Structure formats: structure tokens, C-alpha cells
């Protein structure tokens, strides 16, 4: 019986791909800001999976019980403290945006010492307001909506629960539906693990140590709101090259502008000798154990990731660049193999050896 369709098999195949791409795009567009919940679940899965594997696969503990414990741990130890830091940062910056007198006082002191006028109060207020607006769009917090925050956290934990409980089916689905060979999937998995280890575990540990040192240093040398500036140092520590000098550097300049030379020099000495060097030392120690990511990839990835995913882009941005590098390497290797195969096929077969002439 003849088919009633007007499409050829090839056209049907192309239209099927178009439908799949279109539906995927609509789903991603509909998820909108909630896509960060799935990305966050993937990051937490990589972080917590070694514990899950040790307790479930090696010691044969209850899968549901271990998963519930890991979810509670992630919420209490990771999500709540990080959310508190974000709220503290955003709320304090908004206070500075509403009252710029403290910032103008510092600028006037610097202007008096240097003899140069930097800006006017209106310009400072506009600049601070732009910073607050940018942070509000990049950093999710309770201020942007309690319902949205609860939905994102709930969706992330819900996704993480099924990633652990149905781990085998989840991994089998990735291997089946991702259009990559087994070796490529292994490389992508290694890139994901190295990036998460370097930019979540390793960098978070480095940022925490630097934030504590910055807080203690500013507290010892009499800087007001040392806890807030230490919290800000935790986030700036994720920025390669710049890092915590963005915090203790201006604090030292402020002390010098106020005529407190000893305190200003003390902050600079501790910052340069201790805080910066502890960063370099920890990076060397942790790079071998938690993944070694090139600083340029981290810097470009952070700029890209924060613009696309907000605060979660601190991890997702370097991961995207790492995946790009892996896929380029896979493409280069596959293309080289294909060229070698074509060269072997096009190479003419050797002529059969000539038989010696028989004597007549």
C-alpha cells in the first residue's frame, strides 16, 4: 500500500530533528530563570557523589536514607550559609546606594590628599545604583521574591534526589542520548569533575580562608564593618588576578587618607605578604588534588558565566569553556583519524611481485 505522506524519508528525518530542537528551545525558554535549579543540582551531584558512592555502593547503606541525609547536609551546610552571605551583601550594598555620604567622605579624604577631584556626589550615586541593579539581576536572593527562591531551591533538591535515587537510569540515559562516543563522554565527565573541584571545592576553600584573613586583618587595624568587607572578600576571591585586593586595598588607602599611616601600611603588608601568598600556596597544593584549571579559562569563564547564569556562573562559565576545549580536541582527533583512514583507502595497492622467467 502506498504511503499517503507527502514527505520523503530524508525530509521526515530533517523535520523530526527540527521538531526536537524547537521543542527543546521552547522548554528551555519556558523554564527561564529556573534553569539554574537544574544546573545547581548537577553541581551538587558532582560534589556529593563521592560520599554517596562510598556509603551506598561500598557499604550497602540504604539509598533513600543516604540521599535524604545528603539533601539535608546540602541545604544546611551549603545552601543556607551561601544564601545568608548573598543576602548580607545585597542588603548592605543597597544601604550604601541609599546613603552615599560614607562613600563621599572617603572620596573627599582621598581628594584632599592627592589634590585631584574624582567625581561628584550625583555621579557616585548613579554609579552605586548601577552596581546595585547589576547585582540584583545576577545574584538571586530573597529580595527578588520569596516564592521564586523557594521554587528554585525545591526544584534543585527534588532533581538532586532523583539523580541519586535513580542514578543508574540517569547515567544510562546520558550515555544513550548524548551524541558522543564513550571516550568523549569520559573526557566530558573528567572536565566536569575537574571544573567543579577546582571552582567549587578548591576555590570555595581558598575564598573562605582569604575572607577570614581579610576579616581579622581589617578588624585588627580598626576598619568599620570588617565582617561585611570580609564577606565581600569571599566573593571577590573567586575573581582571578584581582581577588581580595579589591577589598583590603581600598581599606588601606582609606586608612592612609585618614592619616593613620601605621594601620594603612599594616593592612598592605598583611595583604601582600599573607593573604596573596596563602592564595598562591593553596592553589599549588589543591591543584593536584582538585583539578588544575588554567587561570585564563577561569577568568573568561567567570565573566561569561555570571552574565548568563548569575552567581552560579562562577562554576558554569569555566565549565562551558572547558567543554568547548574538550570538544575541539575531540573534533581534531576524529578529523585526523578520518583523514588517515581516507589516505589508507586512496593509497594504491602494491603491484604483485614479478615471477622469474622460466627457462625455455
From TrEMBL:
Regions annotated as coiled coil: none
A family per Pfam: AI-2E_transport
Bilayer disposition of the protein: Multi-pass membrane protein
UniProt xrefs under InterPro entries: AI-2E-like
Record keyword Metal-binding present: no
Residue stretches spanning the membrane: 12-31, 37-56, 68-90, 145-165, 200-221, 227-249, 261-278, 298-331
Keyword set, alphabetical order: Membrane, Transmembrane, Transmembrane helix
UniProt subcellular location: Membrane
Keyword Transmembrane attached: yes
Cellular component annotations (GO), alphabetically ordered: membrane
Positions of region (Disordered): 339-360
Stretches with biased composition (Pro residues): 349-360
PANTHER family found in the cross-reference section: TRANSMEMBRANE PROTEIN, TRANSMEMBRANE PROTEIN 245
Family affiliation: Belongs to the autoinducer-2 exporter (AI-2E) (TC 2.A.86) family.
Protein known as: Predicted PurR-regulated permease PerM
Amino acid at each position: 500500500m502506498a504511503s499517503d505522506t507527502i514527505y520523503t524519508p530524508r525530509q521526515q528525518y530533517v523535520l523530526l530533528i527540527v521538531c526536537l530542537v524547537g521543542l527543546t528551545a521552547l522548554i528551555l525558554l519556558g523554564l527561564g530563570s529556573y534553569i539554574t535549579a537544574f544546573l545547581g543540582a548537577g553541581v551538587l551531584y558532582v560534589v556529593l557523589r563521592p560520599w554517596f558512592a562510598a556509603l551506598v555502593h561500598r557499604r550497602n547503606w540504604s539509598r533513600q536514607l543516604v540521599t535524604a541525609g545528603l539533601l539535608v547536609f546540602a541545604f544546611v551546610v551549603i545552601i543556607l550559609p551561601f544564601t545568608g552571605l548573598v543576602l548580607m551583601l545585597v542588603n548592605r550594598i543597597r544601604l550604601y546606594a541609599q546613603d552615599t555620604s560614607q562613600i563621599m567622605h572617603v572620596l573627599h579624604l582621598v581628594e584632599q590628599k592627592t589634590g585631584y577631584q574624582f567625581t561628584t556626589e550625583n555621579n557616585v550615586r548613579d554609579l552605586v545604583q548601577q552596581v546595585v541593579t547589576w547585582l540584583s539581576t545576577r545574584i538571586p536572593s530573597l529580595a527578588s521574591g520569596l516564592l521564586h527562591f523557594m521554587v528554585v531551591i525545591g526544584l534543585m533538591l527534588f532533581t538532586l534526589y532523583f539523580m541519586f535515587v535513580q542514578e543508574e537510569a540517569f547515567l544510562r540515559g546520558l550515555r544513550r542520548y548524548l551524541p558522543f562516543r564513550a571516550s568523549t563522554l569520559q573526557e566530558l565527565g573528567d572536565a566536569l569533575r575537574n571544573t567543579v573541584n577546582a571552582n567549587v571545592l578548591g576555590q570555595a576553600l581558598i575564598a573562605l580562608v582569604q575572607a577570614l584573613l581579610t576579616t581579622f586583618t581589617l578588624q585588627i587595624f580598626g576598619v568599620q564593618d570588617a565582617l561585611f568587607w570580609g564577606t565581600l572578600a569571599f566573593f571577590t576571591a573567586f575573581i582571578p588576578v584581582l581577588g581580595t585586593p579589591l577589598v583590603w586595598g581600598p581599606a588601606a588607602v582609606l586608612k592612609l587618607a585618614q592619616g593613620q599611616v601605621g594601620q594603612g601600611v599594616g593592612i598592605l603588608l598583611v595583604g601582600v605578604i599573607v593573604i596573596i601568598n596563602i592564595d598562591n600556596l593553596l592553589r599549588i597544593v589543591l591543584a593536584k588534588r582538585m583539578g588544575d584549571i588554567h587561570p585564563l579559562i577561569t577568568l573568561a569563564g567567570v565573566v561569561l558565566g555570571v552574565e548568563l547564569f548569575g552567581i552560579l556562573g562562577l562554576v558554569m562559565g569555566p565549565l562551558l569553556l572547558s567543554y568547548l576545549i574538550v570538544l575541539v580536541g575531540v573534533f581534531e582527533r576524529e578529523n585526523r583519524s578520518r583523514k588517515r583512514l581516507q589516505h589508507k583507502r586512496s593509497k594504491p595497492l602494491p603491484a604483485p611481485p614479478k615471477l622469474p622467467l622460466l627457462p625455455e
